[in-house]
Amino acid sequence: MEKLVIIPTYNEKDNIQRIIEAVMGLQENFHVLIVDDGSPDGTGAIVRSLQRTYPGLLFLEERSGKQGLGTAYIHGFKWALANGYQYIFEMDADFSHNPADLPRLYRACAEEGADVSVGSRYVKGGGTRNWPWDRAVLSYGASIYVGLVTWLPVRDATAGFVCYHRRVLEAINLDAIQFVGYAFQIEMKFTAWKLGFTIKEVPIIFIDRKEGYSKMSKGIIKEGVFGVLKIQSQSLFKKYHRRVAARQGTAPEQGTVSK
User: Fold this and answer.
1) pTM of the full predicted structure?
2) Which residues of 50-67 are buried (b: 16+ CB within 10 A; e: fewer)?
3) Which among 31, 48, 170, 246 is placed 20 to 30 Å from 85, CA to CA?
4) Percentage of the chain lying above the pLDDT 70 cut
5) Sequence spans of domains, the chain
6) Which UniProt key words apply to this protein (predicted)?
């Protein structure tokens, strides 16, 4: 058990089987964890039926009601650590993230020295397709805004296509992550950077979803705008401590962020 792809879902019946089959079709032996927030459209039932096809490779965690993207990933991260995975991935269910790019994110961490690899729209070779102009401007503007406010050296700080080495997730106090929407992705990268981990951006082409509907809302955008200010202001009063390596035969100690 080495590589786990976490896919949060809410009403993704149009995409879920195809995205699972696409990941399972890769040669690199990725496992998949679906974290479903009680989708009323039957997404969870589709995943349960596919578990018979992919025994020991496909897992499902079902939660009651829509609780937010960030809490879904935190749930998945804890599950991945408890089950011994070394490389833990975030990916959307709607094919805006191409499963064929997963091996490149993996190699960036496993072979090229990164602790975190980010599928980036805003480095050379990256880009977007099928986006309305207003969303493209909003997304690119958000990345510039994050950099100006936080100094985070990541061009695509809001990206949700990410690979974490387990040591990063062990070092972050996951229970202290505050945001659940747009700002969640920024907060995770910012915390990893403040803890001294190496982040590498891997160029990807982001393709707007063809099936289902976007989960973006005014509330999520608002969280992103004001959340960035909160993340930076709070960081001025915190000390970030790297995880202390565990002694052989003992559980790893989790890193802390203290005031």
Assistant:
1) 0.86
2) beeebeebbbbbebeeeb
3) 48
4) 83
5) 3-258
6) Glycosyltransferase, Transferase
Contacts 24+ apart (CB under 8 A), 60-65: 60/33, 60/34, 60/36, 61/33, 61/34, 61/35, 61/36, 62/36, 62/38, 63/35, 63/36, 63/37, 63/38, 64/37, 64/38, 65/37, 65/38
- For the chain, the 3-state helix, strand and coil shares in percent, each to the nearest 5, are 40, 20, 40
Residue 220 has pLDDT above 70, yes or no: no
Residue 35: count of CB within 10 angstroms of its CB: 23
The amino acid at residue 77 is F
CA 205 to CA 104: how far, in whole Å? Answer: 13
CA distance 225 to 220: 9
Please provide the average confidence, as pLDDT, over all residues in the chain: 86
Token digits of residue 171: 């070092």
Distance CA(189)–CA(117), nearest Å, equals 10
Rounded alpha-carbon distances, angstroms, from residue 53 to 20, 26, 56, 96, 223: 11, 15, 10, 25, 39
Tokens for 138? 């909003």
Q: Return the residue matching tokens 């496993």.
A: 110
> What's the pLDDT tens digit per position in 106-139?
999 999 999 999 999 999 999 988 878 777 777 7
Query: How many angstroms separate the CA atoms of 227 and 183, rounded?
Result: 6
Q: What is the number of alpha carbons within 13 Å of residue 229 lying toward its C-beta?
A: 4
In this prediction, residue 79 has a pLDDT band, given cuts at 50, 70 and 90, of very high
Question: The domain 3-258: what is its CATH number?
Answer: 3.90.550.10
